[in-house]
Amino acid sequence: MNFERHRRLRSSQAMRDLVRENTITMNDFIYPIFIKEEGDTVTEVSSMPGVYQFPLSALKKELDSIVACGIQAVILFGIPSEKDAIGTGAFHTHGIIQEATRLIKKEYPDLLVVADTCLCEFTDHGHCGIVEEERILNDESLEILVKTAISQAEAGADIIAPSNMMDGFVQAIRDGLDQANFKEIPIMSYAVKYASAFYGPFREAADGAPQFGDRKTYQMDPANRKEAFLEAKSDEGEGADFIIVKPAMSYLDIVRDIRNTTNLPVVAYNVSGEYAMVKAASQNNWIDEEKIVMEMLLSMKRAGADIIISYFAKDVANYLNKN
């Protein structure tokens, strides 16, 4: 019979391992940490089992666990004790992100610290920029974001990751960092960030839900594909060193699109809603969590992601160690 024998390369585990195109290693991950300014207790996020808000006093123990897992990079989200209209806590010298960064670099100098550069967790209105009569002002917001990025770099952040989706934010932050003598600090831009329903659990974890309206005037419409090319091209031209696509699972076509159009590292953000759904299904014994998680993360690598921001990173370390 004359037909192709594709099964020859699937005949055993060793054969499948030999020809496997994509693999997951701990080098692929950036692990999110939520750090709160108020209180001394570790608080589990109810919608994200296994994810916690850590006070500074408990951060060292968590860092020990993270490093033991082989995780080499973390991204920090802060929960301040006080909020105001301009998000002062985001750029304060002794803000929660800045203090956490100093602690991390003291305890584990080689652990990469990625600082999320946004205002939503620090503003009393919960939006990612300055608000005037319920309008989010673009250019005025850039000034605050630049101050935040510089403050984070001064505290020791290795990578600045602006997630605000204001037009021109990469250029403004790049210029600000350069003028402050932080020319070597890279920018990991949330270049392609959709206005997604998958962010719900994160807003509980970071206490950053908008107090009015939504974020559809600055985050992207989930219906749009070509718009992602415009956003990524702009940010790359303005000086971005990494391009983030967020969310990941429902946007793997966009991950592939961006992979095909840039030579920069592409980062897929495996967001809170994706995490929460898997955990909920697993707790009900509806799925095999390990197999689902690994298949999901492999799909992101297959789509073209070089790096994955994921709340599953510690779980994956356990899977890989066990196997």
TrEMBL record:
<comment type="function">
    <text>Catalyzes an early step in the biosynthesis of tetrapyrroles. Binds two molecules of 5-aminolevulinate per subunit, each at a distinct site, and catalyzes their condensation to form porphobilinogen.</text>
</comment>
<feature type="binding site">
    <location>
        <position position="231"/>
    </location>
    <ligand>
        <name>Mg(2+)</name>
    </ligand>
</feature>
<dbReference type="GO" id="GO:0005829">
    <property type="term" value="C:cytosol"/>
</dbReference>
<dbReference type="GO" id="GO:0006782">
    <property type="term" value="P:protoporphyrinogen IX biosynthetic process"/>
</dbReference>
<dbReference type="InterPro" id="IPR001731">
    <property type="entry name" value="ALAD"/>
</dbReference>
<keyword id="KW-0456">Lyase</keyword>
<keyword id="KW-0350">Heme biosynthesis</keyword>
<feature type="binding site">
    <location>
        <position position="215"/>
    </location>
    <ligand>
        <name>5-aminolevulinate 1</name>
    </ligand>
</feature>
<keyword id="KW-0627">Porphyrin biosynthesis</keyword>
<feature type="active site" description="Schiff-base intermediate with substrate">
    <location>
        <position position="246"/>
    </location>
</feature>
<dbReference type="InterPro" id="IPR013785">
    <property type="entry name" value="Aldolase_TIM"/>
</dbReference>
<dbReference type="Pfam" id="PF00490">
    <property type="entry name" value="ALAD"/>
</dbReference>
<keyword id="KW-0862">Zinc</keyword>
<dbReference type="GO" id="GO:0008270">
    <property type="term" value="F:zinc ion binding"/>
</dbReference>
<comment type="similarity">
    <text>Belongs to the ALAD family.</text>
</comment>
<comment type="subunit">
    <text>Homooctamer.</text>
</comment>
<keyword id="KW-0460">Magnesium</keyword>
<feature type="binding site">
    <location>
        <position position="311"/>
    </location>
    <ligand>
        <name>5-aminolevulinate 2</name>
    </ligand>
</feature>
<protein>
    <recommendedName>
        <fullName>Delta-aminolevulinic acid dehydratase</fullName>
        <ecNumber>4.2.1.24</ecNumber>
    </recommendedName>
</protein>
<feature type="binding site">
    <location>
        <position position="272"/>
    </location>
    <ligand>
        <name>5-aminolevulinate 2</name>
    </ligand>
</feature>
<feature type="binding site">
    <location>
        <position position="128"/>
    </location>
    <ligand>
        <name>Zn(2+)</name>
    </ligand>
</feature>
<feature type="binding site">
    <location>
        <position position="118"/>
    </location>
    <ligand>
        <name>Zn(2+)</name>
    </ligand>
</feature>
<feature type="binding site">
    <location>
        <position position="120"/>
    </location>
    <ligand>
        <name>Zn(2+)</name>
    </ligand>
</feature>
<keyword id="KW-0479">Metal-binding</keyword>
<comment type="pathway">
    <text>Porphyrin-containing compound metabolism; protoporphyrin-IX biosynthesis; coproporphyrinogen-III from 5-aminolevulinate: step 1/4.</text>
</comment>
<dbReference type="InterPro" id="IPR030656">
    <property type="entry name" value="ALAD_AS"/>
</dbReference>
<dbReference type="GO" id="GO:0004655">
    <property type="term" value="F:porphobilinogen synthase activity"/>
</dbReference>
<feature type="active site" description="Schiff-base intermediate with substrate">
    <location>
        <position position="193"/>
    </location>
</feature>
<feature type="binding site">
    <location>
        <position position="203"/>
    </location>
    <ligand>
        <name>5-aminolevulinate 1</name>
    </ligand>
</feature>
